[in-house]
Amino acid sequence: MSEKPFMPKATAVWLVENTKISFKQIADFCSLHELEIKGIADGDVAKGIKAYNPILAGQLTREEIEASSNDVNRPLTLNKKALDIKSEKKVKKYIPFSKRQDRPNAVLWLIRNFPQLSDGQIAKLVGSTKNTVTLIKNNKYWNSSNLIQKDPVVSNLCSQNDIIKAVEKADRKIEKKKKETKKENQKSEV
Q: Which residues contact 119 (CB under 8 A, 6 or more apart)?
């Protein structure tokens, strides 16, 4: 079997403890030796390794375990959907030194063109800090006199799509606040 489960030894420990699957089936599934699985069952191997439930992890289904428990010759097959997990975390993009002075200029451009954006949103768009955005907004940035508005899309700090999404989110937030204040005013009148 070319693909093995995540944390194979811990998965093997769980399968030995919680199923009636043969050592050979577990060994084949976890890409381990059959004697290693026997050692896990005897308590000689994998001492201190916490069992990893492959059902909760999405690597196996209960039906798959049932079918393999009833047929000793049937191999366990890894649930392929579990392996297609993409990292949602955005990787920080390296910005060359020559482009770094464009960040404050881009912050100024965003402040002037989209005043509804929060400091945090602007900082996220151009890869700066909230503190820097606040300083630029209040004209207290150390180099404020030399800042020139520059589109962050032209500087390749973010995409036009990112700006559009941020503006839409900011507009929704403003609309929500308006509705809440309207409700509060109506309640106070009653």
A: 130, 133, 134, 137
Cα 95 to Cα 86, 149, 156, 167: the distances in Å are 24, 19, 9, 23
What's the token pair of residue 23?
A: 């050592």
Residue keyed to tokens 């994998």: 46
Sequence-distant (≥ 6) Cβ neighbours of residue 18 within 8 angstroms: 51, 53
Threshold 0.85, pTM exceeds: no
Looking at residue 98, the DSSP 8-state letter turns out to be: G
- What is residue 81's predicted lDDT score, i.e. its pLDDT? 59
| Alpha-helical runs (H) found in 31-61 | 34-42
Structure tokens at 65: 């375990």
Q: How far is 152 from 108, CA to CA, in rounded Å?
A: 10
* 105: helix, strand or coil: helix
Q: Which residue has the tokens 């579990």?
A: 82
Domain spans, the chain: 8-84, 97-189
Q: Which residue is listed with tokens 């097959």?
A: 77
Question: pLDDT for 41-80, tens place per residue?
Answer: 888 888 888 888 888 888 888 888 888 888 888 888 887 6
Evaluated on CA atoms 180, 124, 86, 65, the torsion sign reads negative
